[in-house]
Amino acid sequence: MTTATARRVAAGADTQKPRGRGRTVSARQNAIGWLFVGPFGLIFLTLLVLPIGYALYLSLFQKSLIGGTRFVGLGNYAKAFTDPSFLSGVSFVISFSLVLIPLQMAVSLAIALMLDILVSRFARFSRLMIFLPYAIPTVIGALMWGFLYSENFGPLADIFGAFGKPAPDFLSSSLIFYGLLNVVTWQWAGYYMVILYAALQGIDPTLYEAARIDGASQWQIIFRIKIPLVAPALVLILVFALIGTLQFFNEPKILQPLAAGAIPNDFTPNMYAYQQAFSLANSNYGSAISFALAAVVFVCVYIFMFATRKRGNILS
Amino acid sequence: MSATDIQRRRTPRTPGGVPMQIVLGLLVLYFLIPFWWVIVNSSKSTAELFGGGPALWFGSDIDYVGNFVALFTYGGGIYGRWLLNSALYAVVGGVGATALAVLAGYGFAKYRFRGRTASFAILLGAVMVPATALVIPTFMLFAQAGLTNTIWAVIIPSLLNPFGVYLMAVYSRDAVPDELLDAARVDGAGEFRAFFQVALPLVRPAMVTVLLLSVVACWNNYFLPLAMLSDNRLFPVTVGIGLWQSTASTYGAAGGQSLWSIIVLGCLVSVIPLIVAFLTLQRYWRGGLAIGSLK
How high is the ipTM of this complex? Predict the structure, then answer.
C-alpha cells in the first residue's frame, strides 16, 4: 500500500512536474489559479483599490456653501502641507515613533532573550502573561491605563503620597507623551516578544555549542549569534510598529475625554482627518489628509522593505 | 531521565538565572497591573471608586453581583447587545477573511497563473497600507451605496486581510509538497478535491493563526465601527464603552458619575472572551505567529 502510493507519487512527480513548472502557463493552471485568488481579488478591488481611488478623487475637490463643489486640483494637499494642525500632528507621530519603536523593540527583545535562556515553568507562565495585553482591545487597554493615571481612581497619588511627593499626572499636556508611550508599549511588547521568541527558538542550538567551545561568553552569543539571526523578525516588527504608530488614533481618542485639554482634536493626523470628515463634514479635506498620510506611510515602508529585503522570498 | 538530572544539566547554562527570574517577575507584575486594577475595582460602587480608598485593593463592600446586574440592565440591557454585536462581527468577519486568505494564499503558492508575480507584488504593497487609512474613504463609498449604519458596514471591510493572504501563501508553499498534489491528481482527484482533502489539513496551523489574528483584529476594531455606525444598538463593545466613558467624563460628577462602576466592570467582561480564546488555543498560535518573520 505504502509502496504503491510512493511509486505513484514518484510517477506523478516525473510526469507532472515539467508541465507545472514550465515557462508557459497552461490555460488550466491559469484558470484554476485565478479561481482560488479571485474571491480575495474581488474584495481587494472593492475595499482597497476602489476606496483609495475614490479618496484620491474626492481630495481633488472642495465643497463650499457658495458655488457648491468645485475642482481644486492639488489645492487640498497644498493646504494640508501648510496647515499647522496637520503638520503638528505629523511631527507628533514622527517624534513618537522615534522614541516608541526603539523602546518597544528593546523591551521585547530583552524579554525574548531572557525567556530563551530561562527554561522553567515560571518562564512559560511569564511568556503568556506578558503576551496577554495583545488580546485586549486597544480601546480597553487605553482606558485601563487612563484609570491608573487618574487622580480619582489610580494608585499614583497614594504611592507618591507615601513619599510626600505630588503624583505625576500622565494625562496632563506635559506628560501625555509618556502616558501614551507606556500604554502602547504595554499593549504590543508581548506580541513582538512572541514573534522574537519563536525566531530565537528556531535557531540551531549547535551554533551555541560551537561558540561555547570557542570560548564565547553568554553576551557574545547574544550579540554575535542570536541578534543577527533574528534580524528579519526585528525588521518585520519595525515595519508593523511604524505603520501602526503613524496611524495613531484609538489610544489618544479614548484618553481624550479623560485628559482634559491635553489631547486636542488635531493631536494626530488621523484624529484630524476624523474631525474634518465627521465633525466638520469636510470630507474632501479629510480624504486628502487620509490619502497623504497613507501615501507617506506606504512610500516610507516600501523603501525600507526594499532596502532590507532578503533573497529567496516568494517572488524569486 | 529524572527531573533533577535535567536541573543539574541546565544550571551551569544559565548563570544569573535568579536575578533574571526576579527581573521577569517584576515585568510580569507590570504587565498584569491594569488587569489587577480592573478586577479589584469592578467590585466597588461608584461612591467607593471616588472615595479615596486604596486603588489597588478591595473596598469594604465587595459587590460584583450588584455591578453585574447594573451593567447588564443599564439602558435596557444595551451592554449585552454590544457583546453579541462584537461576537457577530468578529466571527463573521474573521471566518470570512480567513476563508478568503486560505484560498488566495494557496492559489498564489501552487498555481503559476498569468499575472501571479505582479499580483503578489501588489499584495505585498497592500500589506503596508494601514487599515485605518482606508476607514474614511470606505465610509464615503459606503455612504454613497447607503450601507453605512448597518452591520455590513463593519463586516465587509473586515474581510480584507492582505497580511493573512501573505502568511497563507508563504506557509502553503512549504507545507504542501507539489508531489503530494500531483499524486492526488494522478489518483483522479480534481483540483478542488486536492485542495480540500490534501492541502487543507496540511496548512491548518497557519489557518488557525490567521483566524485568530483576524478575529482579534475584528473584536478590537474601534475606528471603523466608530466611523460607520450611528445607531448605538449596532455598536460593538469597544465603541459602546468608549461612548459611556466619554459621557461619564463629560458630565463629571453631575450625572455621568454613576456610570463609572459599570464602565470598569464592562472593561473586565469585554476582555474575558479573547483571553479565554488565547489561553485555550495556545498550542496553535504559539508557533504560528512567527510564520511571517522567519522568511
Answer: 0.84
Give me the DSSP letters along chain B. Answer: --HHHHHHHHGGG-TTHHHHHHHHHHHHHHHHHHHHHHHHHTTS-HHHHTTT--TTS--S---HHHHHHHHHHGGGTHHHHHHHHHHHHHHHHHHHHHHHHHHHHHHHHH---TTHHHHHHHHHHHHTS-GGGGHHHHHHHHHHHT-TTSTHHHHHHHT--HHHHHHHHHHHHHHS-HHHHHHHHHTT--HHHIIIIIIHHHTHHHHHHHHHHHHHHHHH--HHHHHH---TTS--HHHHHHHHHHHHHHHTTTTGGGGHHHHHHHHHHHHHHHHHHHHHTHHHHHHHTTGGG--
The type of residue at B61 is D
CB-based contact, B17 to chain A, within 8 Å: yes
Distance to chain B for A243, nearest Cα, Å = 6
Query: What kind of fold does domain A80-308 have according to CATH?
Result: MetI-like fold (1.10.3720)
Q: B235 vs chain A: nearest CA distance in angstroms?
A: 14
**Whole-number percent of chain A with pLDDT over 90:** 14
Q: Is A62 helix (H, G, I), strand (E, B) or coil?
A: strand
Question: What predicted TM-score, i.e. pTM, was given to this entire model?
Answer: 0.83
pLDDT value of residue A22: 46
B positions 201-230 inside 8 Å of A (CB): 216, 219-220, 222-223, 226-227
B261 touches B66 (CB < 8 A):
no
Rounded to a whole number, what is the distance in Å from the CA of B76 to chain A's nearest CA? 23
- What angle is formed at CA B222 by the lines to CA B71 and CA A94, rounded to 5 degrees? 135
Bridge partners, A265 (sequence order): none
pLDDT value at position A111? 93
pLDDT band at residue A189 under the 50/70/90 scheme: very high
Whether A143 and B263 lie within 8 Å, measured CB to CB: yes
Q: How far is A66 from chain B (nearest CA, A)?
A: 22
User: Average pLDDT in the B146-168 region?
Assistant: 91
Residue position matching grid coordinates 455612504: B143
The CATH number of B90-293 is: 1.10.3720.10
Pairwise CB contact (< 8 Å): A236 & B292: yes
**What residue spans define the domains of chain A?**
80-308
Inter-chain touch A297–B133, beta carbons under 8 Å: yes
Q: Compare CB distances from A130 to B17, B28, B111 and report the shortest one's residue.
A: B28
The kind and range of the H/E element at A71 are strand A68-71
**Contact map slice: B 129-168 vs A, CB within 8 A:** 129-130, 132-141, 156-157, 159-160, 162, 165
